[in-house]
Amino acid sequence: MIKKNILLTSILIIASIANAQETGKTYSYSLEQAIIHALEHNYSVINSGRDIEVARQKKWETTAAGLPQINGTVDYSNNFSLQQQGVTGGGPFGGDEGTISTFAFGTKHNMNAAATLSQLLFDGSYIVALQASKTYLQYYENAKIKTDIEVKEMVINAYGNVLLAQESIAILNKNKNTLSKTLSDTKETFKNGLIEEENVEQLQITLASVNSNLNNTTRLLDIAYKMLKITLGIEINDQLIVTDKLENLTSTSMGVALTLDQFNSNDNIDYQIATNFQKQRELEYKLERSKSLPTLAANVNFGYNSFANEFNFFSSNQKWLNYSNLGVRLSVPIFSSFAFRAKTQQAKIAVEQAKTQLNETDQKLKLQYANAKSEFDFGVEELATAKNNLALAERIEKKQQIKFKEGLSSSFDFSEAQRQLYTTQQNYLQSMINIINKKASLEKLNNK
Questions:
Q1: Rounded Cα gap, residues 395 and 413, in angstroms
Q2: Reported pTM
Q3: pLDDT band at residue 271, thresholds of 50, 70 and 90?
Q4: Last residue of a domain, which of 332, 358, 393?
């Protein structure tokens, strides 16, 4: 009996583990928690972080170019057929004068081992390159900030779409239940011969439309959840629960956005990227000017070579001959047929273009903020209007329903009141989502 219980317990444990592996992880997040998760696990955020690391390595690569460099070489050659040199006879070579004799110079095996130490002493281009590497790193740091801001906005929009679909489903289910009951009562009234069949048919058409919208919204909810999961950087088959409510987020968004009444272009990440771009162009101009300066480099060579007709270089009796030398190279640009001047002028023009682009970015950002603030203010007004319209539509629908049941109103008037209510309900939900999204746009412009 005990063995049977142990076996049963083991089976249940294995089944629960398999089920957990099949369903994946479960997450339960508020909007703020979802944003925090995305800023660490979103795919774009991860890769932008890697871009920064690449830029750091690139910066060190540039720095290392001006530091001491040591290179070692080992050369071996096997002269299996030595090249013959011809000489005219007589003199020190002997033989009859006017005859040609040949000699082979060299040995069958040659080996050379050397080490070279080189050091850049002065190069204007290197100094500019060091400055440019810092700007290069700063660009990717700014790009990371921009990615984080964009991902935050994407999370807010995706999270809001899930809440919108959930609220829409709840309202549609409520409408469906109310309409189903009304239809059932109307059918009974029709059976008693008190109303025309058209009243039943009109309600059936309305109910079919509600069912269709409900099914479609249910599918949209699944898609909205998957979009949110991708934005958060979690597996699409994992379970995700959103804990915030649409109305609460709308109220919070209104409170936060109303405090964003000041805008400074310098704080915007796009302006900072444009500033970084201008610095890059200025450094490129400086680089072209630095090419007119001389460059100075030095190198020291140490080496050993050996010669033999038999391959015995690793024998203790083999003789190795050492050599060493010191070299210094000074390179001075003298005349380039004005090619240097042309490149410098091109770089100077590029700097002026970057300054113009920076000014254009400043003006566009101010316009974007003014537009976003206007849209948010309109969204606040639209929300208040939608809320009042919803209350009116609910009262009108309720009155028409009473009149319809008492035979004082036609099925057409009742259906029109229902459609007006359903449209107003969706308008109210959409106006809340608009508040959340417009607040996100304002925060994006303010680098929040």
A1: 14
A2: 0.82
A3: very high
A4: 332
